[in-house]
Design a protein that fits this description.
The chain has about 190 residues and is an alpha/beta fold. Helix content is about 60%, strand content about 15%. Helix 1 crosses helix 8 and helix 4 runs parallel beside helix 5. The two termini are about 15 Å apart. The chain binds adenosine monophosphate.
Length: about 190
């Protein structure tokens, strides 16, 4: 089994790498951001609530995320999975760990793509014009980055300290191909 998690601040390139590796290994790519953006198109009450939270740059509630991920993993984990954007809080990582224990699975690789704020700012603002994502505006980026520092970084730190053998930090300032090569080399070991 290849159960892989990607961490990193918004704009670090975790979605890009998760997609590439998912194609290489033929594993389902579970991007919680993509799943939530699709839900927003449904235009019901939940969609309205999600749109408000996401366009402000804040995190969506753990309950919503945990139930989305559990239902996707249930139907989608024959050879493993790639999680992109989850877990983003300690309660989410606790939920995931309990869930995996229950189905006798574990995480095999964690890739934490690191990048500094100024490179990140340029990238996100570029993506904002290319993909017209509501949450890629500068003020929102600042909130998203704060959410990352205050909440999500504690999760990657938790894995780095508790499971150093499966935790790999990757330099996100490199070119996309170079990052993919580094990840692929680790996966081959
Ligand atoms: P992303 O595409 O991964 O950057 O996610 C876009 C937005 O979706 C985030 O800024 C959050 O508002 C929301 N989101 C995605 N994944 C999660 C998560 N695991 N926990 C809470 N909110 C999330």
């Amino acid at each position: 089994m290849n159960n892989i998690i990607f961490f990193g601040p918004p704009g670090a390139g975790k979605g890009t790498q998760a997609k590439i590796i998912s194609n290489h290994l033929n594993l389902p790519h579970l991007s919680t951001g993509d799943i939530l953006r699709k839900k927003i198109n449904e235009k019901d009450d939940l969609a309205k609530k999600l749109n408000e939270i996401m366009s402000s740059g804040k995190l969506v509630s753990d309950d919503i995320l945990n139930s989305i991920v559990a239902s996707r993993l249930e139907s989608n984990q024959e050879n493993g999975f790639i999680l992109d954007g989850y877990p983003r809080s300690l309660p989410q990582s606790e939920f995931l760990n309990n869930y995996l224990k229950r189905i006798s699975e574990k995480i095999n690789y964690i890739f934490d793509i690191q990048i500094n704020f100024s490179i990140l700012k340029d990238r996100i603002l570029k993506r904002s014009t290319e993909e017209s994502r509501e949450d890629d505006k500068f003020e929102v980026l600042e909130t998203r980055y704060k959410e990352y520092l205050n909440t999500t970084e504690n999760v990657s730190k938790f894995y780095r300290e508790s499971q150093p053998d499966i935790y790999f930090e990757i330099d996100g300032s490199l070119q996309i191909e170079e990052i993919t090569m580094k990840i692929t080399q680790i996966l081959k070991k």
